[in-house]
Write a structure and sequence with these properties.
The protein is built from 3 helices and 7 strands; from the N terminus they run ββββββαβαα.
Length: about 140
């Protein structure tokens, strides 16, 4: 049986998605302790031309079976087996920009490029203040409570 994603010590399933756009995660190699920080979206949006008109279609991504985009990590998963890796969601995100921001924040806060404890080989982010406006408002509201 495939080991699913864990969020706050519980298994995370399709029914838990709600209004979230995606998530930031950490995958840990249980034998070595080496980790990978990344982001994944729940849906992919494609544009199709139907009867001469462009229509956006939303379909589920491969998030349930996803083990990161890093080739070294993917190779280790193949060699050592999925059962030797723990997949944890560390942030649920309401937008693409929020995912990008929180992924980069986690990567910089954990110094992933400066440590051999992480599979991460590069950090790429493009986020504007307007992308995370709703996120900032939610954070400020929770601090006031």
């Amino acid at each position: 049986m495939e080991i699913n994603w864990i969020y706050k010590d519980s298994e995370f399933t399709e029914q838990d998605i709600g209004n979230d756009y995606g998530f930031v995660y950490v995958i840990t190699h249980l034998t070595t302790g080496r980790k990978y920080i990344g982001k994944k979206f729940f849906y992919s949006v494609r544009t199709k031309v139907i009867k001469g008109k462009r229509k956006k279609t939303k379909t589920f991504s491969d998030w349930q079976t996803y083990y990161g985009s890093n080739s070294e990590l993917q190779n280790d998963v193949q060699v050592h087996g999925k059962e030797n890796f723990k997949r944890e969601i560390i942030h649920l995100c309401k937008s693409k920009g929020e995912c990008g921001y929180l992924e980069a924040k986690e990567q910089f806060d954990r110094c992933v490029l400066e440590s051999e404890d992480y599979y991460n080989a590069w950090i790429m982010v493009k986020v504007r203040k307007t992308h995370i406006k709703a996120f900032n408002e939610r954070i400020m509201a929770s601090i006031k409570d």
